Amino acid sequence: MPEMISLEEARALVLAHVEPLPVETVPVLDAVGRVAAVPLASDIDIAPFAHSAMDGFAVRAGDLAAASAETPIELDVIAEIAAGDTYEGPLASGQCVRIMTGAPLPDAADAVVKYEIVDVVSGDGMPGSRVAFTAPTKVRSNVREAGEEAKAGEVIVKAGEVVGTAGVGFLAGCGVVEMPTYLRPRVAIISIGSELVDPDRVPAGGKIRNSNSYALAACAKAAGALPVILPIVEDTHEALAAAVLHAVANFDFVVTSGGASNGDFDFIKPVVEELGALLMTTVNMRPGKAQTFGIVNDIPVFGLPGNPAAAYVGFEMIIRPALRKMQGYTHFERPHVRARLTRDVKKKDPRRIFMRSTLYRNAEGAYEVEPAQNQSSGLFGVIQRSNCMAIMPEGLEGCTAGSLVECVLLDVPEEIVL
């Protein structure tokens, strides 16, 4: 039987046994939050032409070199260019063109002066009017150049890059309407326990509702995977073995909860050992010491404890990184910050403890962390009201109020650098 290992060893072990899944091609709108499997290039210059950055007047900057409030320079407005139109005529000295945001800059113009700082001398500022400029302007001022953001053929999203919401617009503007990305892992979620009933039933006679499956499926979904909740499995070796064999035949990753300890009705460890290779059984952490991991028919099978907090912490710290690796992500750990404890914390267990907690900034802007009073591993509500986990290191030494402790942020993506 494998010995108890550290959390870092457990995460490394599981990551070593998963690889990115095959590639699929999805519409660009479905690429948000996913990893590009290949480099993506623009088919044209972006922007394809030099254009105005604002509503104003396209001018020849040299015409305004001597302009001042005391001696304004007056120009004739000879044309107007709306977005989507062009002006290909000449622009002689003493002339300007009224231009809208996004409209192509006339070839003879080399700057744009915004409308609000130009005085109308006669007319209404439209073609046929005369306008006055009271200051010089720089060459290429208020002009967005052709190819400023990307050149034709230039890679705009690298392989391995996560596409954000703005990235979807960037890709669309560069003519990329589909993106190759890694398949999302199909995850089987199995709750084990003869005491469990489905949530739509009112439990009676020693029964409880199956909440773990829903929480773990939500965790898998939040990690980008495609979870499927399978039927509850009774506490027998035969039933669990059949359920695991069915799951590994139809899914990319299997997660069970319950039956992970060493009691008379805890069967996930012997089932994995019987059907495949049992690689891990316990991790030096609390909650969630009992963490079973193995490979059955080339499919990872992970057995979480039945207590909600223990299952949740195990999923967040070990399974979530594995599901992300299968989708091509390269960042596997949630961001950490250091914060001051708001109260004393005693420690009677030598394991590393993850305390469900609330992180906030005090009046001075410094991070403070308040561990929940009730740290029972059987509670979901405490996790719902927490935004981090405060970490108590291995050993029996507690921490006093004001001590700095590491906190794992539960609501911040792994890619964020703090």
UniProtKB/TrEMBL annotation:
UniProt-listed PANTHER family: GEPHYRIN (PTHR10192:SF5), MOLYBDOPTERIN BIOSYNTHESIS PROTEIN (PTHR10192)
GO cellular component: cytosol
Keyword Lipid metabolism tagged: no
Function of the protein: Catalyzes the insertion of molybdate into adenylated molybdopterin with the concomitant release of AMP.
GO molecular function: metal ion binding; molybdopterin molybdotransferase activity
Name listed for the protein in its UniProt record: Molybdopterin molybdenumtransferase
Similarity annotation: Belongs to the MoeA family.
The protein's annotated pathway: Cofactor biosynthesis; molybdopterin biosynthesis
Keywords: Magnesium, Metal-binding, Molybdenum, Molybdenum cofactor biosynthesis, Transferase
Record GO biological process: Mo-molybdopterin cofactor biosynthetic process
Cofactor(s) needed: Mg(2+)
InterPro entries per UniProt: MoaB/Mog-like_dom_sf (IPR036425), MoaB/Mog_dom (IPR001453), MoeA-like (IPR038987), MoeA_C_domain_IV (IPR005111), MoeA_C_domain_IV_sf (IPR036688), MoeA_linker/N (IPR005110), MoeA_linker/N_sf (IPR036135)
Documented EC number(s): 2.10.1.1
Catalytic activity: adenylyl-molybdopterin + molybdate = Mo-molybdopterin + AMP + H(+)
Domain MoaB/Mog: 188-325
Keyword Magnesium: yes
NCBIfam families: Glp_gephyrin, molyb_syn
